[in-house]
What does this fold into?
Amino acid sequence: MLSYIQKNNNRSKLKDILPVKMPLGLCIEPTNLCNFKCVQCPVSLDEFESVVGKRMNMKMELFKKIMADIKAMGRLNNLNLYGDGEPFLNKNILEMVRIAKRDDIAGAITITTNASLITEDTALEILDSKLDYLRVSVYSVLQERFAGITQTKLDNELIFRNIKYLSAKKKETKREKPFVYVKMLNAYSGENDLFISNYKNIADEVNIESPMNWNGYKGIDLISKIDPLRKTDETTLQGYYGKVSCSGKKRVCTTPFLTLNVKSNGDVVICIVDWNRGTIVGNIGRESLKDIWFGERLRKFREMHIRNRRAENPSCRNCRFLYGNPDNMDDLTEEQFQTILNCKP
It folds into this structure.
C-alpha cells in the first residue's frame, strides 16, 4: 500500500504529486527463501529457481548501501521489507529494521510474514525494534486446508499462538508498535467468519483480501490453485483499499511512477508481483538509487505504459494487478505526461 494514502482514505490525486523526485515507497526483499510452498505463490512453481536464479538472503553490505542511497535522496514514506520469501528466514531482518529506524529512512517500516518463525524471543525483538507495521498472512484457520495451501506439515495453531503472544507482550509492555494487521485470502465460505472471530481480539486489524494472480507471466493461473471456481474478480480493489472508490480498469499502471522493488541480489524491478523479473531497470549493487530512478531504462518503461504498449513486456502483458489499486492517471494530459517523463533530479 502506498504511503501517501492515509489510513482515513483521504487520497492525494496523482496529478497533484507527480512527478515525484524519489520513490514514495521502496520494497526490499530480505530473502527469496521460504519455509512454505504456497500453491498460489510463484515460489511453489517448479521453474521458480530456473527463472529467478539463486535462492539467497540479501547481504547486509548491500542493505546498508541501499540505506545510504535512500538518505542521499531524502526520506521514503514507506519501507517494506518483504518479497518472494519469508523475511524472518534472514537472521538480520530485525537488524535491518533497527538500522532503518536509526537513520530515519522512512515514515513507516513494514514486514509481511507468515508468522511461523515468530518465537517468544523474536516477538520481544520485534517490539524492541520499533517496527511500525507487521502484516501477517494467515492462509487458513482449518488445518487440512492450511496444509493443502502451504504444503507444510506445520500446525496452523502455531500461527495463532505466535500472534497472540506478540500481541499480549505488546499490551503488557504498553507498546504502540507494531500495528498488527492479520489477513486471510478470501475462502468464499464460512471460514472467513471463523478467521475474523479467531483473530479480531488479538490483532489491531483483521481483513479478508482478494487472491491475486501475480503478473500472469506466461499465462500461469495461480488464482485457480486457491480459488478453483474462479470467483475472484481481478478488476476489483485489493482488500486493504476496500473503503476507497475505484474507477475500475485502467490503461496506465501507476506503480513505475511511484515505487520500486529491490530483489535480494540487488536487481531493481518495478513491481512486487514481477516474480520473474521481467521489469528490471537496474541493479542497486552497481548503480545508485538516484541513477536508477532518473535513468533511461525506467523512463522508457514509463513511456511504454503511457503509450499503451505494456503488452511488449512479458511481465506486464497479462498482468491485472494494476486494477486492484485505485490510483489512476489515465486522464493526465500529454503535457503532464511529458513533464513526468522528462523529470530530472
Remarks:
- The two ends are 25 Å apart (CA to CA).
- Residues 71 and 103 are 8 Å apart (CA to CA).
- Strands lie at 25-28, 76-81, 106-113, 133-137, 179-185, 205-209, 259-262, 267-269, 282-283.
